[in-house]
Amino acid sequence: MTTEDMREFLETGVIDAGRMRAIEGNAVALGYPSLLMMESAGRAVADTVLARGPSRVLVLCGRGNNGGDGMVVARYLQHLDAVDVVYPDCGTTTPSAAAQLALLRHCSVALHPVRCAADVEALSRLFEEADVIIDAMLGTGAAGAVREPFVTLVARANASGAPVVAVDIPTPGIRASRIVSFHRPKVEGAAVADIGIPLEAEIFTGPGDLTLIPSRAEGAHKGAGGEVLVVGGGPYQGAPYIAAMGALRAGADIVRVASPAYIPMPDLIYERLEGKAITVDHLETILRLVDRADTVVCGMGLGKESHDVVLAVAEAAQKAVFDADALALPLPAAKETIYTPHAGEFARMTGAEPPVDLTLRGRSVKAAATTGTILLKGPVDVVSDGSRVRFNRTGTPAMTVGGTGDLLAGIAGALFCHLPAFEAASLAAYVSGRAGMLAAEERGNGMLATDMPERIPEILFCHPAPD
Ligand SMILES: NC(=O)C1=CN([C@@H]2O[C@H](COP(=O)(O)OP(=O)(O)OC[C@H]3O[C@@H](n4cnc5c(N)ncnc54)[C@H](O)[C@@H]3O)[C@@H](O)[C@H]2O)[C@@H](O)CC1
Ligand SMILES: [K+]
């Protein structure tokens, strides 16, 4: 498969720190080491600074990777008359920034560790003499009110009169005359430096996307992981339970299954519906449950006769994932919706088979996603919310076994409690495919959908923190 003609799926405009972190994580997973990205970033800023022909440059660095970028800039400027690097000599640092500082000790630059405002005040001469000041204090990792020694460094830089070049994004409060953002602008008006991130890091899902999942606060209450309601079962009895296990393993705290069929599973809450199939007679019970749930996952094992119920669920639900038999016309749409069709269901939804060519397939899913996010399952999954398109290629042919689609819908349901539809669907596709790959490593084509849930936590929750 080639991606050369897939540039049309690159997003444009300003992106937020979370998305940038995800892209960087995906680039690292594709084999572009963080240190090399930093080198490329710092080099681009150094070129911008050198174009101004300065002789004295003051580089203000932080402890994170933004500071690391600043140290790379300083290294490329070391042959100027004077390069002074100020950095905080306290707090934790990242491995990449630490590596840059170690390298800088062997360069022709003056290093000035500071701990407090007084240390900064003692360096006031550097601010007065600088032709250019580089702001590499805080980047996309800035959080909360700016603390010392940065408060004083920002004040000194603003008072100096020298032009400030901000690295990636300005430290809050600083007046930058130029901003050089990496890969994509993080604020309006920034110049963009291409740091060579592979296209696929952006349009394909990857482990970097896992950083989008919000971490759970210490002392979180029961239910903080989300409450998912699965509505399904009838002609096929196991399907809603497989979805429910997917939701539980993907982090939902409480998962209820409203179904005519009972399969004993102690971790799930069974909401019994009388009879052999779900009908409008069950609506009152179901809608009461919809009211309590963060996300409803609906359609698996349902049969074709329950579409009125599906439409009523859609009407009442805030967030819903529709799968399998729910994917019929008229299409249900909750306030926020994810549809998880395979090719046949997509054809039923839209009246046309999805094209085989990936670029055309991307366009077709994008055009069809008018009432919610569509996750079209296939050897390469395609996700679109009508404006963005993302592809996912985790998975294995062993996943053609029954039940894997149900599981994916359940995973999407759990992630949807915490993420917007497009992000939840993209990540669900990634996680489900990875779970299938891990299960298939042990069991090959004898793998079952029920082998997959237990592999989900190691993918979702036990990944190493990014550098
Ligand atoms: N991750 C990567 O692969 C790449 C990252 N890059 C750079 O890395 C930056 C992001 O790096 P990080 O995630 O390490 O984050 P930052 O370097 O932006 O900031 C994190 C550091 O700042 C401190 N901090 C945060 N908020 C603060 C506040 N309000 N007051 C005082 N200190 C505060 C933190 O304790 C931490 O030490 C980007 O903006 C970009 O410049 C580039 O090198 C390109 C590659
Ligand atoms: K900065």
TrEMBL record:
Residues 205-463 form the YjeF C-terminal domain. The keyword Nucleotide-binding applies. Its EC number is 4.2.1.136, 5.1.99.6. Keywords: ATP-binding, Isomerase, Lyase, Metal-binding, Multifunctional enzyme, NAD, NADP, Nucleotide-binding, Potassium. The keyword NAD applies. Its cofactor is K(+); Mg(2+). It catalyses: (6S)-NADHX + ADP = AMP + phosphate + NADH + H(+); (6R)-NADPHX = (6S)-NADPHX; (6R)-NADHX = (6S)-NADHX; (6S)-NADPHX + ADP = AMP + phosphate + NADPH + H(+). GO terms for molecular function: ADP-dependent NAD(P)H-hydrate dehydratase activity; ATP binding; metal ion binding; NAD(P)HX epimerase activity. K(+) binds at residues 66, 135, 171. Binds 1 potassium ion per subunit. Gene3D superfamilies: 3.40.1190.20, YjeF N-terminal domain. It holds the Pfam family Carb_kinase. (6S)-NADPHX binds at residues 65-69, 139-145, 168, 239, 301, 342, 406. Residues 20-203 form the YjeF N-terminal domain. AMP binds at residue 405. GO terms for biological process: metabolite repair; nicotinamide nucleotide metabolic process. InterPro entries: CARKD, Nnr, Ribokinase-like, YjeF_N_dom, YjeF_N_dom_sf. HAMAP family: NADHX_dehydratase, NADHX_epimerase. Homotetramer. Belongs to the NnrE/AIBP family. Belongs to the NnrD/CARKD family. Catalyzes the dehydration of the S-form of NAD(P)HX at the expense of ADP, which is converted to AMP. Together with NAD(P)HX epimerase, which catalyzes the epimerization of the S- and R-forms, the enzyme allows the repair of both epimers of NAD(P)HX, a damaged form of NAD(P)H that is a result of enzymatic or heat-dependent hydration. This is Bifunctional NAD(P)H-hydrate repair enzyme. It comes from Methanoculleus formosensis. The lineage of its organism: Archaea, Methanobacteriati, Methanobacteriota, Stenosarchaea group, Methanomicrobia. The gene is nnrD.
